[in-house]
Write a structure and sequence with these properties.
CATH architecture: 3-Layer(aba) Sandwich
CATH class: Alpha Beta
Oligomer: single chain
Number of helices: 6
Radius of gyration: 18 Å
Strand content: 25-35%
CATH superfamily: Dipeptide transport protein
Number of strands: 12
Strand order of the largest sheet: 3-2-1-4-7-8
Largest sheet: 6 strands, parallel
CATH topology: Rossmann fold
Shape: globular
Distance between the termini: 31 Å
Protein backbone atom coordinates (compact mmCIF):
# COMPACT_ATOMS: atom_id res chain seq x y z
CA UNK A 1 0.00 0.00 0.00
CA UNK A 2 2.86 2.40 0.89
CA UNK A 3 4.56 1.61 -2.43
CA UNK A 4 1.33 2.39 -4.29
CA UNK A 5 0.95 5.72 -2.46
CA UNK A 6 4.55 6.67 -3.18
CA UNK A 7 4.11 5.97 -6.87
CA UNK A 8 0.88 7.98 -6.85
CA UNK A 9 2.71 10.93 -5.32
CA UNK A 10 5.36 10.85 -8.01
CA UNK A 11 2.67 10.92 -10.70
CA UNK A 12 0.83 13.81 -9.00
CA UNK A 13 3.97 15.91 -8.64
CA UNK A 14 5.09 15.26 -12.19
CA UNK A 15 1.67 16.33 -13.43
CA UNK A 16 1.68 19.45 -11.27
CA UNK A 17 5.03 20.57 -12.65
CA UNK A 18 4.68 19.39 -16.25
CA UNK A 19 5.33 21.59 -19.25
CA UNK A 20 2.33 23.52 -20.40
CA UNK A 21 0.85 23.67 -16.89
CA UNK A 22 1.62 27.29 -16.36
CA UNK A 23 0.27 30.53 -17.63
CA UNK A 24 1.80 32.67 -20.33
CA UNK A 25 4.38 35.05 -18.84
CA UNK A 26 4.03 38.76 -19.33
CA UNK A 27 5.54 40.07 -22.55
CA UNK A 28 9.08 41.25 -21.99
CA UNK A 29 8.11 44.60 -23.48
CA UNK A 30 5.84 45.06 -20.48
CA UNK A 31 8.26 43.37 -18.11
CA UNK A 32 7.91 40.55 -15.63
CA UNK A 33 6.49 40.95 -12.14
CA UNK A 34 8.24 38.74 -9.61
CA UNK A 35 8.40 38.09 -5.88
CA UNK A 36 11.68 37.26 -4.18
CA UNK A 37 10.96 35.57 -0.85
CA UNK A 38 13.87 35.70 1.58
CA UNK A 39 14.81 33.57 4.53
CA UNK A 40 18.06 33.67 6.47
CA UNK A 41 19.22 30.18 7.34
CA UNK A 42 20.36 29.39 3.78
CA UNK A 43 22.56 32.47 3.36
CA UNK A 44 26.27 31.74 2.92
CA UNK A 45 28.34 32.01 6.10
CA UNK A 46 25.41 31.41 8.45
CA UNK A 47 25.67 28.27 10.60
CA UNK A 48 24.08 29.15 13.97
CA UNK A 49 20.58 30.31 14.89
CA UNK A 50 21.89 33.00 17.28
CA UNK A 51 23.70 34.91 14.54
CA UNK A 52 20.53 35.61 12.52
CA UNK A 53 18.72 37.44 15.31
CA UNK A 54 19.24 41.02 16.60
CA UNK A 55 21.77 41.31 19.39
CA UNK A 56 24.35 38.91 18.01
CA UNK A 57 27.68 40.48 17.04
CA UNK A 58 27.41 39.03 13.51
CA UNK A 59 23.76 39.92 12.87
CA UNK A 60 24.39 43.16 10.98
CA UNK A 61 27.14 41.55 8.91
CA UNK A 62 24.85 38.67 8.00
CA UNK A 63 22.04 41.09 7.13
CA UNK A 64 24.41 42.75 4.66
CA UNK A 65 25.25 39.39 3.08
CA UNK A 66 21.55 38.52 2.88
CA UNK A 67 20.75 41.88 1.30
CA UNK A 68 23.60 41.47 -1.20
CA UNK A 69 22.28 38.03 -2.18
CA UNK A 70 18.89 39.65 -2.77
CA UNK A 71 20.48 42.46 -4.77
CA UNK A 72 22.23 39.91 -6.97
CA UNK A 73 18.85 38.29 -7.63
CA UNK A 74 17.38 41.69 -8.50
CA UNK A 75 20.22 42.38 -10.94
CA UNK A 76 19.65 39.03 -12.62
CA UNK A 77 15.92 39.64 -12.76
CA UNK A 78 16.30 43.06 -14.37
CA UNK A 79 18.71 41.60 -16.92
CA UNK A 80 16.02 39.04 -17.80
CA UNK A 81 13.33 41.69 -18.31
CA UNK A 82 11.72 42.11 -14.90
CA UNK A 83 10.21 45.53 -14.38
CA UNK A 84 8.36 45.02 -11.08
CA UNK A 85 10.22 43.29 -8.26
CA UNK A 86 8.80 42.75 -4.79
CA UNK A 87 11.04 41.42 -2.02
CA UNK A 88 9.26 39.72 0.87
CA UNK A 89 11.41 39.57 4.00
CA UNK A 90 10.32 36.20 5.34
CA UNK A 91 12.48 35.50 8.39
CA UNK A 92 11.40 35.81 12.03
CA UNK A 93 10.19 39.40 12.62
CA UNK A 94 10.57 40.08 8.89
CA UNK A 95 13.03 42.97 9.38
CA UNK A 96 16.30 41.46 8.13
CA UNK A 97 16.80 42.86 4.63
CA UNK A 98 18.54 46.22 4.94
CA UNK A 99 16.28 48.76 3.18
CA UNK A 100 19.15 51.27 2.83
CA UNK A 101 21.34 48.78 0.97
CA UNK A 102 18.56 47.18 -1.06
CA UNK A 103 18.58 47.83 -4.81
CA UNK A 104 16.27 50.79 -5.42
CA UNK A 105 14.51 48.96 -8.28
CA UNK A 106 12.75 46.68 -5.77
CA UNK A 107 9.93 47.20 -3.31
CA UNK A 108 10.30 45.63 0.14
CA UNK A 109 7.56 44.06 2.28
CA UNK A 110 8.67 44.13 5.95
CA UNK A 111 6.87 43.16 9.15
CA UNK A 112 3.95 40.81 9.52
CA UNK A 113 0.18 40.71 9.89
CA UNK A 114 -0.71 38.76 13.07
CA UNK A 115 -2.62 35.57 12.38
CA UNK A 116 -1.97 35.59 8.64
CA UNK A 117 -0.79 32.08 7.62
CA UNK A 118 0.53 33.31 4.26
CA UNK A 119 2.98 35.69 5.91
CA UNK A 120 6.11 34.42 4.10
CA UNK A 121 4.63 35.22 0.67
CA UNK A 122 2.32 37.99 1.83
CA UNK A 123 0.68 39.77 -1.09
CA UNK A 124 1.32 37.22 -3.81
CA UNK A 125 -1.49 36.85 -6.33
CA UNK A 126 -2.19 36.08 -9.98
CA UNK A 127 -0.50 39.28 -11.18
CA UNK A 128 2.93 37.76 -10.46
CA UNK A 129 4.87 35.89 -13.15
CA UNK A 130 7.31 34.05 -10.89
CA UNK A 131 8.34 33.28 -7.31
CA UNK A 132 12.02 33.01 -6.25
CA UNK A 133 13.66 32.02 -2.96
CA UNK A 134 16.85 33.38 -1.38
CA UNK A 135 18.31 31.98 1.86
CA UNK A 136 16.27 28.77 1.81
CA UNK A 137 16.82 25.84 4.19
CA UNK A 138 15.70 22.23 4.46
CA UNK A 139 12.75 20.81 6.36
CA UNK A 140 12.29 19.68 9.96
CA UNK A 141 13.84 16.28 10.52
CA UNK A 142 16.68 16.73 8.02
CA UNK A 143 19.82 16.26 10.11
CA UNK A 144 22.28 17.12 7.34
CA UNK A 145 20.78 20.50 6.51
CA UNK A 146 21.99 23.81 7.93
CA UNK A 147 19.55 25.07 10.61
CA UNK A 148 16.84 22.77 9.22
CA UNK A 149 13.31 23.32 10.53
CA UNK A 150 9.79 24.02 9.32
CA UNK A 151 8.47 27.40 10.51
CA UNK A 152 9.34 26.64 14.14
CA UNK A 153 11.98 24.67 16.04
CA UNK A 154 9.07 22.98 17.84
CA UNK A 155 7.96 21.28 14.62
CA UNK A 156 9.33 17.75 14.36
CA UNK A 157 7.47 16.75 11.19
CA UNK A 158 5.01 18.42 8.82
CA UNK A 159 3.11 16.87 5.91
CA UNK A 160 0.23 17.62 3.57
CA UNK A 161 -1.50 14.58 2.09
CA UNK A 162 1.35 12.45 3.37
CA UNK A 163 4.08 14.46 1.67
CA UNK A 164 6.73 16.14 3.86
CA UNK A 165 7.17 19.78 2.85
CA UNK A 166 9.98 22.22 3.43
CA UNK A 167 9.11 25.90 3.79
CA UNK A 168 9.70 26.77 0.14
CA UNK A 169 7.26 24.04 -0.94
CA UNK A 170 4.72 25.18 1.65
CA UNK A 171 4.85 28.72 0.29
CA UNK A 172 4.96 27.60 -3.35
CA UNK A 173 1.82 25.57 -2.72
CA UNK A 174 0.00 28.75 -1.76
CA UNK A 175 1.43 30.62 -4.76
CA UNK A 176 0.37 27.75 -6.99
CA UNK A 177 -3.27 28.55 -6.30
CA UNK A 178 -2.74 31.73 -8.34
CA UNK A 179 -0.83 29.99 -11.11
CA UNK A 180 2.50 31.49 -10.02
CA UNK A 181 5.47 29.19 -10.76
CA UNK A 182 8.51 28.79 -8.52
CA UNK A 183 11.53 29.22 -10.79
CA UNK A 184 14.63 29.66 -8.60
CA UNK A 185 16.02 28.81 -5.16
CA UNK A 186 19.31 29.60 -3.40
CA UNK A 187 20.28 27.92 -0.14
CA UNK A 188 22.38 25.13 1.30
CA UNK A 189 22.82 21.86 -0.60
CA UNK A 190 20.03 20.15 1.39
CA UNK A 191 17.53 22.89 0.47
CA UNK A 192 18.55 22.67 -3.18
CA UNK A 193 18.01 18.89 -3.14
CA UNK A 194 14.53 19.38 -1.70
CA UNK A 195 13.82 22.01 -4.35
CA UNK A 196 14.65 19.56 -7.13
CA UNK A 197 12.65 16.79 -5.41
CA UNK A 198 9.56 19.01 -5.19
CA UNK A 199 9.82 21.29 -8.21
CA UNK A 200 11.83 19.36 -10.76
CA UNK A 201 14.62 20.92 -12.80
CA UNK A 202 14.39 24.54 -11.63
CA UNK A 203 17.50 26.70 -11.33
CA UNK A 204 19.22 26.45 -7.94
CA UNK A 205 22.35 27.90 -6.36
CA UNK A 206 24.13 26.08 -3.53
CA UNK A 207 25.49 28.64 -1.08
CA UNK A 208 27.10 26.12 1.31
CA UNK A 209 27.49 22.39 1.95
CA UNK A 210 26.15 21.03 5.22
CA UNK A 211 28.16 18.78 7.52
CA UNK A 212 25.29 18.91 10.00
CA UNK A 213 22.67 21.32 11.32
CA UNK A 214 25.22 23.82 12.67
CA UNK A 215 28.26 23.25 10.49
CA UNK A 216 28.89 23.86 6.79
CA UNK A 217 31.53 24.56 4.17
CA UNK A 218 30.56 28.00 2.88
CA UNK A 219 31.20 29.58 -0.50
CA UNK A 220 32.64 33.08 -0.70
CA UNK A 221 29.84 35.67 -0.67
CA UNK A 222 31.24 37.23 -3.85
CA UNK A 223 31.06 33.87 -5.64
CA UNK A 224 27.51 33.34 -4.38
CA UNK A 225 26.40 36.77 -5.62
CA UNK A 226 27.70 35.97 -9.11
CA UNK A 227 25.99 32.57 -9.14
CA UNK A 228 22.67 34.02 -7.98
CA UNK A 229 22.80 36.82 -10.54
CA UNK A 230 23.34 34.40 -13.42
CA UNK A 231 20.97 31.76 -12.02
CA UNK A 232 18.06 34.18 -11.68
CA UNK A 233 18.66 35.59 -15.14
CA UNK A 234 18.66 32.08 -16.61
CA UNK A 235 15.51 31.10 -14.69
CA UNK A 236 13.49 34.11 -15.80
CA UNK A 237 14.58 33.83 -19.41
CA UNK A 238 13.14 30.30 -19.49
CA UNK A 239 9.99 30.25 -17.36
CA UNK A 240 9.09 26.89 -18.90
CA UNK A 241 11.53 25.32 -16.42
CA UNK A 242 9.43 26.65 -13.55
CA UNK A 243 6.89 24.67 -11.57
CA UNK A 244 3.40 25.63 -10.48
CA UNK A 245 3.41 23.51 -7.33
CA UNK A 246 0.04 21.95 -6.57
CA UNK A 247 -1.40 19.21 -4.40
CA UNK A 248 -4.95 18.13 -5.13
CA UNK A 249 -7.54 18.78 -2.37
CA UNK A 250 -8.78 17.79 0.09
CA UNK A 251 -5.71 18.84 2.05
CA UNK A 252 -4.84 16.70 5.06
CA UNK A 253 -2.36 18.48 7.29
CA UNK A 254 -0.33 16.42 9.77
CA UNK A 255 2.12 18.02 12.17
CA UNK A 256 4.14 16.61 15.04
CA UNK A 257 5.27 19.28 17.51
CA UNK A 258 7.07 19.46 20.83
CA UNK A 259 4.81 20.01 23.85
CA UNK A 260 6.55 20.44 27.18
CA UNK A 261 8.78 17.40 27.64
CA UNK A 262 6.65 15.42 25.21
CA UNK A 263 5.08 15.67 21.78
CA UNK A 264 1.66 16.14 20.26
CA UNK A 265 0.30 15.10 16.89
CA UNK A 266 -2.28 17.31 15.17
CA UNK A 267 -4.18 16.63 11.97
CA UNK A 268 -6.81 18.60 10.09
CA UNK A 269 -8.44 18.14 6.69
CA UNK A 270 -10.10 20.75 4.50
CA UNK A 271 -10.82 21.47 0.86
CA UNK A 272 -9.38 24.96 1.46
CA UNK A 273 -5.61 25.32 1.73
CA UNK A 274 -5.78 28.48 3.86
CA UNK A 275 -7.80 26.59 6.49
CA UNK A 276 -5.16 23.89 6.98
CA UNK A 277 -2.44 26.55 6.94
CA UNK A 278 -4.22 28.36 9.76
CA UNK A 279 -4.53 25.12 11.75
CA UNK A 280 -0.83 24.51 11.27
CA UNK A 281 0.14 27.93 12.61
CA UNK A 282 -2.28 27.61 15.53
CA UNK A 283 -0.26 24.69 16.85
CA UNK A 284 3.19 26.29 16.72
Amino acid sequence: MKRFLSLSWIVILLMSCSEGSYKEPALLSKGLKIMIQTDFEGVTGVVNFDEIYPGHEHFDRNCRILTNEVNAAIEGAVAAGASEIVVRDGHAGNINVNPVLLDKRAKLIRGRVPGNPTTMVLGIDSTYDALLFIGAHSRAGEQKGVLSHTMSLDVLDFRINGKPLFEAAYNSLYAGQFGVPVVFLAGDDAACREAIDNFGNIDTVVTKYAFGRTCAMNKSPEIVYDLIREGVKSALLDLNKGCIFRIEPPYKMEVLVKEGIGQKFVTHTSDTLEVVMEKFWENL
